[in-house]
Amino acid sequence: MKIKSNFTKVFGDTPINRLWEFLVDSRGAFDYSMTDICEVADISWNTLKEIFPPLVKEGIVKETRKVSRATMYILNESHPKVVFMIGMHKAINMVFMRGGKFKIEMRIVGKGSSTPMNIELTKSSVQPIASRH
Predict the structure, then answer these.
(1) Is 15 found in the same domain as 56?
(2) Residues 53 and 103 in one domain
(3) What is the pLDDT of residues 16-45, one digit of tens each?
(4) By the 8 A CB rule, do 65 and 49 touch?
(5) How far is CA 54 from CA 51, 79, 94, 96, 132, in A?
């Protein structure tokens, strides 16, 4: 039986969420090949080939070295999205360990629009909060 992480309990057990979970949890330990990532994060090779290159292109993960034919990667901890995801993981784990609530306020910006989004996280759920705007 596969045990779900706190992050995938909250946001869903999807390949991209398992990838983020792996990258954040393994940061600073080692660098990893795409084959390693597939095995540890339980993502198929074909799926990883689709979701991984955009993260490399955006600089979320970066190449560290070549080992034989494999390219090795690490999480770019200075990228703003990575900083956010590390904070999100810490907050989720804190809620699951200690209980209570955690509120997130963010703006999703794109194509000329700015949409406020408020989320309340508790040990058992993620709920939208009525916007103050």
Answers:
(1) yes
(2) no
(3) 999 999 999 998 889 999 999 999 999 999
(4) no
(5) 6, 14, 30, 31, 34
The pLDDT of residue 1 is 45
Is 133 domain-assigned? no
- The pLDDT assigned to 77 comes to 93
DSSP, res 5? P
| 63 and 86 inside one domain | no
Residue 55 forms part of a structural domain: yes
d(C-alpha 126, C-alpha 115), whole Å: 18
φ/ψ of 27, rounded to 5, equals -60, 140
Q: Containing domain of residue 41, as a range?
A: 6-75
Answer yes or no: is pLDDT of 64 > 90. yes
